[in-house]
Specification:
With 382 residues, the protein is an alpha+beta fold. Helices cover 30% and strands 23% of the residues. Strand 12 and strand 13 form a beta hairpin.
Length: 382
């Protein structure tokens, strides 16, 4: 990179703020951190990479948001309090604008989560980023750890590797039906959080781990060998969906030649394992039950409506009409902001065809779509 490693760190990553528990931080050979009394360390990590050197760099803010969101969800699933962040970043060639956008988004989101960047590495090579978040959990002595509930033969199967067949996957998912989240959490040695405000992805992370989802942060369906995407679906007491369902990010540049058949939206939704989970706010998180799974293929009439929505929305993207994108457009598929705040930016294309900075967006399924899937495939009391 044209800047030296230390100059790059100083310019883009060292914001000169120090948590009280950071004795030695970024810029030194090693960080020195202090755990609060009565706690022990917990670490979670996530990565993003491109397959080949000539694939080009992905949107910087999208990468920063995606990798940090994933790693924080992992830490939350372990019941950890986030504190410190390390980053390894590799780029094939110097790109100051990309680094500036990536670092700005990453550090803004980190500050919102109470994290301080304390170390990492910069190298040259195929583009990749790896983030680790460190925090702490209350310490438990050896005796109490041994007494901690674990899965037994009579309650649920042991965590398994990636399933080899659809039948194997469905059998595992059916084995979860009726379990409370606290029961599944204890099988991993985890307690259910009191609420999901700081553990938004907790339930989904547990189900993914139990079923053997192996895609991680890769741009592939959750069960790679089977081409199946996993979607946990929060439902209310009446069995109806409570919120829209995230599908994938909106490609704001370089995707105008893409067709619906080749789109990432369609590939994500071609084959889906739906797992309903109770999510009524009146039910404590741990007491919420997992529902019967549905292994589902995209139905022709639903696909036709999705295709029309996708083409309308992508036409707006390709014409640079980014300001017109809103959650009001689309019958089943909508576009919504996909960032922690309006200050998070990524590159897009303006109406004159020139690059512009704009907010990241995501494709979401409206509740009208998931409600129709539920209506067709689940018998519900009148």
């Amino acid at each position: 990179m044209s800047l030296s490693e230390f100059a790059l760190i100083e310019r883009y990553f060292d914001r000169s703020r120090r948590r009280a528990d950071v004795r030695v931080g970024i810029g030194d050979d090693a960080a020195v951190l202090t755990l609060p009394p009565g706690t022990e360390a917990v670490v979670a990590g996530a990565s993003r990479s491109v397959e080949t050197q000539d694939s080009g760099l992905p949107p910087a803010s999208e990468w920063a948001h995606g990798v940090l969101e994933e790693v924080l969800a992992g830490l939350a699933a372990a019941g950890g309090t986030p504190a410190w962040l390390t980053l390894a970043i590799t780029l094939p060639t110097p790109d100051v604008a990309w680094v500036e956008a990536f670092s700005g988004t990453l550090l803004e989101l980190a500050a919102q989560a109470g994290l301080e960047l304390v170390g990492g590495d910069t190298t040259a090579g195929p583009a990749s980023v790896t983030v680790h978040v460190q925090g702490w959990v209350p310490r438990r002595d050896g005796a109490s750890r041994e007494r901690r509930p674990r899965a037994t033969e009579g309650s649920a199967p042991a965590p398994a590797p990636a399933p080899r067949t659809e039948g194997e996957l469905l059998k595992r998912a059916e084995g979860l039906a009726g379990l409370r989240l606290e029961e599944l959490g204890r099988a991993f040695g985890l307690e259910a959080p009191p609420d999901l405000r700081r553990a938004k992805g907790w339930a989904g992370q547990l189900v993914e781990a139990w079923l053997g989802a192996d895609a991680g942060s890769l741009a592939e369906p959750d069960f790679r060998a089977l081409g199946i995407e996993l979607k946990t679906l929060p439902v209310g007491r009446d069995g109806g969906p409570l919120e829209s369902t995230y599908v994938c990010t909106v490609p704001l540049e370089g995707a105008c030649a893409e067709t619906w058949k080749a789109s990432w939206v369609r590939r994500k939704l071609a084959r889906v394992l739906w797992v309903p989970i109770e999510a009524d706010r009146g039910i404590p998180v741990g007491a919420r039950r997992i529902g019967s799974p549905l292994l589902w293929s995209l139905e022709p009439d639903l696909e036709e409506t999705l295709r029309a929505d996708w083409e309308e929305l992508m036409e707006m993207v390709c014409l640079g009409r980014l300001g017109e994108l809103s959650a009001r457009t689309g019958t089943f598929l909508q576009v919504r902001p996909k960032a922690a705040s309006s200050r998070t930016l990524c590159r897009g294309v303006g109406e004159d065809g020139a690059p512009v900075w704009t907010n990241p967006r995501g494709f979401y399924l409206r509740t009208a779509f998931t409600r129709e899937v539920l209506r067709r495939h689940y018998a519900r009391p009148r």
